[in-house]
Amino acid sequence: MNMNEAIAFEVPTGTWRNGLCGCFDACCCPFWMGCCCFPILMGQVMERLNFEFWGCPRIGSYRTSLPLPICPVYTAITIFVFVLGLISMGTLQIGFILCVIWCWYMLVVFTCTRMNMRKKYKIEPICCGDNCCDDCCTVFFCSCCSAIQMTNHTHDPVEYPYNCATRNGLNPDDPHII
Q: Which three-class secondary structure state does DSSP give residue 51?
């Protein structure tokens, strides 16, 4: 660990901080972001964990370089796809195709992020062995609860209030999780 890096708080290992259905225990902002715009919430988690756009940890010299703008990119694409879907509501043209592509990309990225986060914090899967099946099913059947669970696991709202307007969900003066 670099001398300039600080750990915001101790992240639990071996088990999730909250259960998958513990999303109702979350403070108000992550709950609503998870329900209404979970790609943006996942972008914050990925930036907080210093992951790349495919949900894998950044390695080598890239780890210490500037963080990737995952949250702003996911926000822009989500808004673009939503608006394009509204515009092309009556037709099944480009809006539908882009929405399907974006949803499949999100499924793959969220699954990789959840699996890598689970491995980082030594959390055992519930079923299906130590492969991506457990993570894929969790993300597929409840993306919003999965995003909220991952946010709660890497954030201590008692110590550092959640800030939905930042790229990583933490206030600018809060130390970053490494």
A: strand
